[in-house]
What we know:
Blueprint: E1 10-18, E2 28-32, H1 35-38, E3 46-52, H2 58-79, E4 86-90, E5 100-104, E6 109-116, H3 120-127, E7 133-134, H4 135-139, E8 149-152, E9 157-162, E10 164-171, E11 175-182, H5 189-207, H6 233-253, E12 261-268, H7 270-281, H8 289-307, E13 319-327, E14 345-353, H9 354-358, H10 362-378, H11 391-397, E15 402-405, E16 407-408, E17 426-429, E18 434-438, E19 446-453, H12 454-467
Parallel strand pairs: 6-10, 13-15, 16-18
Antiparallel strand pairs: 1-6, 2-5, 3-11, 3-17, 4-5, 4-9, 7-12, 8-9, 10-11, 12-19, 13-14, 18-19
Amino acid sequence: MTNAAGNNMVDVLEHCRVSPPLDLLVATNFLPLTFFDIFWLNWPSLARVYFYEFPCSTTEFTQTIVPHLKKSLASTLKHYYPFCGNLLTPTTLSNNTTPAIRYLDADSVSLIIAEFNGIASEGFRNLSGDDARDVDDLLALVPDLPQDGIVTGEDETVLVSPVLSIQVTLFPDHGFSIGFRNSHVVADGKTLYNFISTWASINAKQLIGEDDYKNLDTLPFYDRSVIKDPKGLASIFFAECLRMAKEFTKAFAQKVHRKDMVKATLVMNEAQIYELKKLASALLPHVSTFVVVCAYVWTCMAKARAALGQEINVETEVVEHFVFVVNTRARLDPPITSNYFGNAVFPCWSTLNTIQLVGEEGFGNAVKEIRRALDEQINNEEGVLKGIDTIFDRIKATKGKIKFGVAGSPKFDYYSTDFGWGKPKKYEVISEKFALAGSRDSKGDLELGFCLSRHEMHAFTTIFTDGLIN
C-alpha cells in the first residue's frame, strides 16, 4: 500500500468496512455541529498510532486477532455511530444552513488490515522507539481518510466527508499497531480518547466472554442542547470558515511534512519536572506541571531557531505565539458531562517576543505568560468562553507569525488502552509538532513527542537535554 506520503512499506491484507448492528437507530440520524465543532472545519485531519508488543504469526493475526477487533469495533460503533457517518458541509450560505454529521443505516468505518513488509524485528523496534524516525514511515501505519464526495442540490453544493479511518498493521512475530485518522470537526482529544478506550474495553471483555458494556463510563453523551449558543456563534463561525477556507488550505499546504521530517520522543522524568517547578515557584505560586513543561519547550524551541542561525534582533521584536486548548466541559455554566461527544475545547494564545524567550529570563517569562493566558481564560467573571466571539480576529492577527501548539494531555491515560493483549508499548501523535502524554512506565514522568526536520531536531534535542537538571 502507498499512503499519502508515497510510502509502500506495508502490504494490505484486507480493506473492509465495519458497521454497527443494523438495528442501531432509525434509518437516518443527524447530529448538528456546535460552534465548538465548526471552529475546526478548515483544519487538517489528525493522525495517531498505538503499538502493541504481542508476538503472533500472520495466521494467528488474521484468524484470531483481527476477527476479535472487527467484532468489538462493531459493538463500539453501536454507541459511537457518528464515526460511521459523514460530515455534511454546505459550500455556501445560500440556505443559511450549518454543517452536521449524518448517519445512515449501514454506514461504516474504513478498516485496513496490513502487514509490515520489511524486517519485522527492526521495524517494530524502530517505529515504536523514542529515537528520531522518519515521519513518512510512521504515516505508513495510519490510513488516509476516504475521499470527499459532493452532492449538488437545487440551491447548494454539499461536501460529504468521512470522519474516521483505522488501520491495524502486523509486525510478524513481534506485535501490531493500530493507527487512527480522524477529522477534528467531529471529535476533540477527549472524545477520541473515550472512543478508543471504549473499543479497547469492549474487546477485552469479549475476549473473556463478557457482553455487558452499559456501565462503561466512556460511553458517549449526545445531547447538543447542553451547549448554549445565545449569540448564534455557530452561524457566525461557519461564515468565517467559508470565507477563510482558501487561506487555511494555503497555510496548511505550506506546512505539509517534508521528506526530512522526523518524529522523536523525549522523556522528562519526575525529578526534572520538580526542578522546573522549583524555579517557577520563585515567580508564581502553585504552578502546574503542564505550565512548566510547556514553558520549557517553548524556550527550547526559540533557542533552537537561534542556534540554527535565525536572526534575533531586539529592535524588530519578533513576536511568537504558543497555543494550547482548554477543555471546557467542567468549566461551562452549567458544566457538561466528561463523556460529551464532540468538541468542547477552546484555544488560548500566549504571546512573547523571541528575545524574551532566548535570554536568561526566558523560562520565567514563558511560565508567567502561559499562566497569564490560562488564568485569563478560566478565572474571569465572564466564564471560560470569554473572547470566543473574537477568536477569528485572533487567528487573523497571528497570520504569518511564529506559532506552535501542544496536542494531548497528561490527564489522558493513553497507556491504559488495553485491548486484552497488554497495554501499549508506545503511543504517538504524528500530526502535531508537539504532543504531550503520560509515561508508560512511571506515573510521574512525561513523554514529549516532537515532529521536526532532522537539523531542527538535532538542535532542539541538544538544547532541551542540556538545559535539564538530571
